[in-house]
Amino acid sequence: MHFPPYFRISELTIYCDYAMQWLLNHPKFIKNHLYVSGESYGGKLAPMVSMEIVRGNEAQLQPQMAFQGYIIGNGLTDPNIDFNARIPYAHGMALISKEYYELAKQSCDGKYYNNDPNNLECSYAIQQIQECLRYVNKVHILYPKCDDSASKPGDFGWKQTFSIDNSDNHLALPTEEAKCHEIDYAVSEYWANDPTVQEALHVRKGTVKNWTMCDYGIPYEQNVEGALEYHKNFTKKGANVLVFNGDHDMAAPYVGPLSWIPLLNVTIDNNWRAWLVNGQVAGFTEKYKKNNFHLTFATLKGAGHGASRFKPEQSLAMITRWFSRSPL
């Protein structure tokens, strides 16, 4: 289910109403375990939608949904935490110098996002850092920064870019020398807008004029800045939660979750360790708990924003193990 980046809280109830109606129309799925997942900006929406489901269950709305937990991939929880994590991440990945980092840390007092515009020393430090990062692909720091001929406005803090070539070579695979994964967006749009595909997916004619990966044209006006309180509420109600990040993603770096997870006052259940696929390190993981709230955090080594695009085998192994309640 696609959610817009800006929404009204009442819309969450509508989405849950759709889900309940779908279950009533397909009763064989009512007892199936239900998980809510959100990626990127959906990191806010996953716990919010989950809370609406739990409230509906508590109010004895029918059908009762077999809610188990939620999943957040390369997600945004609070921009003041997640976006602020970009500069420490950039320093840790050797993208900016120690001098620039120390200047920013001291002059900005550790607040790099939404900082005081009157703090000229901080503004100068941030400007120098942004210039260093100018040609870095924020969604995967090892990949080339591709053309932004079809760029979208950046509600995610930094402008996201999508490479769409108007030639006949849309479906050509990128070469080893220039892996522009943004071509995936173009291919998915061609696929999803194909009439035979929409017919196979039982999309009602006329309901989707033109499917796009990121639809910024939806006229929503209200925004909830942070979802941290929803996570805190779940530590009281209980849920199984998976939070994962590609470790080469600077748009939503793994440093963000490692900053906000301790704010939930959880305790470490399993210490930081490597997790393996085919005998090789696929990333690192740590588990936390509080009451009936269990949170698994994991990185995917070498992945960027939208981790499964870069590491599909490892992503499948991670989610399969987590669903089965097995250690990663």
CATH fold annotation of one domain: Rossmann fold
Main sheet overview? 6 strands, mixed
**What is the residue-mean pLDDT, rounded to a whole number?**
84
Distance between the termini: 27 Å
Name the assembly state.
single chain
* Physical arrangement of strands within the biggest beta sheet: 1-2-3-6-5-4
CATH class of one domain: Alpha Beta
- Count of β-strands: 6
Q: Which CATH architecture of one domain is right?
A: 3-Layer(aba) Sandwich
Low-confidence segments, given as residue ranges, are 1-10, 148-156, 158-178
Tell me, briefly, the overall form: globular
Number of helices: 12
Helix content: 25-40%
Task: Briefly note the structural class of the backbone.
Answer: alpha/beta
Note the beta-strand portion.
Answer: 15-25%
Radius of gyration: 21 Å
Helices and strands, in N-to-C order? HEHEHHHHHHHEHEEEHH
Question: Quick recap of the structure?
Answer:
The chain is α/β, with parallel strands linked by helices and 328 residues long. The chain is built from twelve helices and six strands. Strands 1-2-3-6-5-4 form a six-stranded mixed sheet.
Question: Could you walk me through the main structural features you see in this protein, from its secondary elements to its overall organization?
Answer:
The chain is of the alpha/beta class and 328 residues long. It has a domain at 1-76 and 234-322: Rossmann fold (3-Layer(aba) Sandwich). The chain is 35% helix and 16% strand. The chain has helices spanning 9-25, 42-58, 79-82, 86-92, 98-107, 120-132, 183-192, 195-200, 228-237, 255-260, 307-310, 312-323, and strands at 34-39, 67-73, 239-246, 267-277, 280-290, 293-300. The chain has a 6-stranded mixed beta sheet with strand order 1-2-3-6-5-4. Helix 1 (9-25) crosses helix 2 and helix 5 (98-107) packs antiparallel against helix 6 (120-132). The longest helix has 17 residues, at 9-25. It starts with 8 loop residues before the first helix and ends in a 5-residue tail after the last helix. Keywords: Carboxypeptidase, Hydrolase, Protease, Secreted. It holds the Pfam family Peptidase_S10. This is Carboxypeptidase.
